[in-house]
Amino acid sequence: MLRDSFNREVTYLRVSVTERCNFRCRYCMAEKPFSWVQKENLLSYEELFAFIKIGIDKGIRKIRLTGGEPTIRENLDELIAMIHTYAPAVDIGLTTNGFLLPAQAEKLKSAGLRRVNISLDSLDPQILHYIAQKDVFEQVIRGIEAAVDAGLSVKINSVILRGINEHEILPLFEYAKEIGAQIRYIEYMENSHASDALQGLRSDEIIEVLEKAYSFIPINKEVSGPANLYETSEGYRFGTIEPHRHDFCATCDRLRLTAEGDLIGCLYFEGAKSIKEAIQNGNITKATEILADVVFNKPEKNLWGIENVEVSSRAFYRTGG
Ligand code: SAM
Ligand code: SF4
Question: Whose atoms come closest to the Cα of 187: which ligand?
Answer without folding.
Answer: 1
